[in-house]
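S.,

Sequence below, as promised.
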Amino acid sequence: MNQENPRDWEGTLLKYRFAKTMLEAELEILLKEHEHRTGNNPVEHIKSRLKSESSILKKLKDKGYEFSIENVEKHIHDIVGFRIVCSFLSDVYDIVNIIKESKNFKILEEIDYIKNPKDSGYSSYHLMVLVPIHLEQKQEYIEAEIQIRTLAMDFWASLEHKLQYKLPNDIPVYLKRELLSCSDEIKMMDTKMQHLYDIVKKYTDK
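The prediction came back faster than expected:
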């Protein structure tokens, strides 16, 4: 930490806090407006977090970079993180479209791990966005990551995260196979639940 002025580092962290606050407010407005317009609230719950200073430094070290504000801003993209959890697959893509249609931030990158899951079985939809923050003398854009997934996907990801934390270097092969099998079952369950939801929706829309 001695390579940077502490006040400069505090100012950098403050900008990420501002971005988190701005994104929280914008997502609430977008989703409430969608609910008012359509009568449908696709969100079960939303979690947000700022990566801790120790986590930022560890991730920077794991990537092979020395600490500097420049390296943090250039190489750590998920200091601001949001997770939006919904009930059905269609809700995931509805939320993605709601966010992408907003003019109040920019989409930097999107990755559909639902249609193209990771080798581990991980499924989710990731959006990297640039959030504008209006400072005293200028406007800046701060990166944030938004993950959108179903309840079933979130349950699986929570278990995988605990395993990665408990066994970071040596997850047994049989556990990896079981996780992948559970991921396949969750995918089938999400598809079945979506089918049932579509049937119910036909009746309620009449």
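The chain has one domain: 6-205.

Coffee later?
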